[in-house]
Amino acid sequence: MKKQWPVRALSRALSSSTSSSTTRSCSTTTSFPLKHVTKSNFDSALSSLSDHVRAADFVAIDLEMTGVTSAPWRDSFEFDRFDVRYLKVKDSAEKFAVVQFGVCPFRWDPLKLSFVAHPHNFFIFPRQELPFGCPANEFLCQTTSLDFLAKYQFDFNACIHEGVSYLSREQESEALKHANLLYKDGLSDEWHSLKEARDTPVVNVVDVLFSERMKNRLSEWRGGLLRETNGGSEIRGSLNGSEQQFQTVFFKMRPAVSLNGFTSHQLRLIQLVVKKHFKDLTYLSVSGENSSQQLVVYVDSESDKRLLMKEVKDEQCKQQELKIKAAVGFRHVIDLLSSEKKLIVGHNCFLDIAHIYSKFLGPLPLTGEEFASSVNKYFPYIIDTKILLNSNNVLQHWMKKSSTSLSSAFAVLCPQMALGTKSSYLPFQSRVKVEVEVDDMRSSNWNSGAKHEAGYDAFMTGCIFAQACSHLGIDFKLHSPSENLAHNEKIQKHINCLYLSWINGDIINLSTGNRTSESFSSNNHKMRHAKICFEHVVLIWGFQSKLKAREIRECITKVLGPISVTSVYHVDETAVFVLFSKAELVSKFLVLKESLERSNDPISVLHPLAKLLEGGNTRASSYETYKEICSSPISKVLFADQAEAVGIKWKTKLVETKVEATKNHHVGNSMNPDSGSAQETNNRKVNKVTIDSSFNQLSQNEIVDSYYSSKDVQQLRTSNL
């Protein structure tokens, strides 16, 4: 399996590396003009990016992550149903981190008849910026993903030490709520003082002596204040020469003693002394930018004390709110893209959008439909260039049915930029010119950039989109700056359609939340796999790992017939999907499996299915159990261990098919025509039935029949299901 490293261990390992420098964000070895952004130049970069985004016709994005799948069985399979595929994407976005974010606004220049791109490469890292309200961030790392990033010279030091941190909208909201509760009226003792202080008696001799000494010193200081008020000597700057520990200061226009050099235990004792012996003194612990200040402040009256508390509380609240706003960090970029409602362009970007939602908005919804509806509120116009590449015969002709990966598409559609040449002998010439501008320096000549660097990949994505639009018939020479490109009729039908699964060709429409087919794609684009009827699927796991798919098929077809099994697909070495040719065969197989496991006679031992059941740990169920397991946040390496960790203990679970429900309904009515609505309701249900001791097993004769039947399987009695 791909190893997973805790982020703290990763940080320690990479921070000691001498192979790269944290200054890479300011300079780069490639001659491609790319603006690298870290926390040191984030504010200025955000300001200029805001202007570019507002003027842009579209904005291309790309993300680099620390991993894709948290377990091998969470990879994308052809047996992934629409809702299960979303759960796998959700798991990936929740478990892995985004370490680099590419943002590249593209603006059409009508004077030079070219697009002007402004590529930005943000290093981001989910650093803990707030001391309260938000738990420390944790994420997984796949060694294959880290090795991939290292292969393309990713600067891990720049990411960890200089990456821009962030808060999601929900994290910001929770932090603000926490701050407001912390400084709530009526809880003054919990916000202005050390929480550990209590009215407990001091019995330790050392503590008693210290408390008495503090009482005397504070009495002396207070007496000096009163004498000065009555026309006596001036307030002394210290108490009895203790300049380091006691210093007279003014706080909120009130005389106060600043306490320095005391331990936390001693401060608690001083706080108790003030509370017990001095009604006109109050103890305050005031937080500053980098440290807290411990004070004993003189107040004229109870009303003056309440006023002081309110002033301090309001100031502390304001400071905490400012800290929270400052911790928002990179999310300001996401808020900018959302507020401007620009056309967002990505390449095979469903996982990217899921990461954006999870990291910068809030927890991902439970279903793909809910996710689509919510995303559409924040980003109403998203387009996937991989969709465009498969939607047009001309584009497919130029791609020559080659890989539609980002680098391949860029090499085919934008050869001059990919090769860093302006040769006229290239077989394909880009129709749309693109220039690059970084920090007011504009260029049309550069060498190719570093692939799999998010900023450059975003640039490639935008260039591919511009060329694809040209081939779809969009003439940018006629394009008006006031025209919203997302409303162009030639690409409008592709807006918000993203590949949920490239393997299955599943497309989700973010505008409706519905799954769509590739009806708009070219007829030349063939689906790799036929559509799967998931009611025909049985999930089997926990069998002996030595069993191959061919052997599992043979075990089943010897009993249910040679054409009973359409295919057997390995989830991993501990689990398989078995696709049956008919829905009723699912029930037959599950009932027979359970009956064999309950029987200890010689016939059961010699039965063809005995090989599959060897070891006594084989589990089986319908596809719905697979969805249940995928929805769990747990990610064990092996699927069989995952199922056990999720809490699935039974050996066989059957989902009654609609066909059987209908058949049982007719049988029930013919036997009891006056059964009424209750019987009708029960027969109409499609229930999950766990086979337990009350379930009718097959008779000995039926097991024998199944042993000898290889073509015509006896009708198994499932009337009680």
TrEMBL record:
Any Pfam family from its record, for instance, is: CAF1
Organism, scientific name: Xanthoceras sorbifolium
Which PANTHER family has this protein been placed in? POLY A -SPECIFIC RIBONUCLEASE/TARGET OF EGR1, MEMBER 1, POLY(A)-SPECIFIC RIBONUCLEASE PNLDC1
Source domain of life is Eukaryota
Name the SUPFAM superfamilies for this protein.
Ribonuclease H-like
Give the record's family classification: Belongs to the CAF1 family.
Which InterPro entries does the record associate with it?
CAF1_poly(A)_ribonucleases (IPR051181), RNase_CAF1 (IPR006941), RNaseH-like_sf (IPR012337), RNaseH_sf (IPR036397)
**Protein name, entry field:** Uncharacterized protein
Q: Which cofactor does it need?
A: a divalent metal cation
